[in-house]
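Repro:
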Amino acid sequence: MRVSPLRILLAEDLEPFRELIMSVLKKIPDVSVVCEVADGFRAVQMAGKLEPDLILLDIDIPELGGIEVARRIRRVSPNSKILLLAEESSADVLDALREGPWGYIIKANIAIELGAAARAALRDSCYFLGRTTTEASHQRFRRN
């Protein structure tokens, strides 16, 4: 059972959307945002430095893009879980999931789903389209 708060790095380039996410996160117990970044290079850099428990990553983040950022974060902070923030479910999301993220949230549903996704991460579970799964079932998405 986790005693310390879930440490989150937020990687989203649009400030109004970052503010919305922060307002949702403030309502979730046992969550602490350790860093906010607006580009992919900085996301990788801070993930390696801080090694957060969870990274909320915009799949369309500038400077590298979400797929490459996920790939690099997996190398510099392998224990961090990545939750993608996507405009909609697409082939890009499936490609990104193969790079190691633990799930994704459609941005339009962020206010509804972010709490459940953060709680899933607290339990070491994956989160896809409003559903929680185990790590074992998540492994089938990853590339070997």
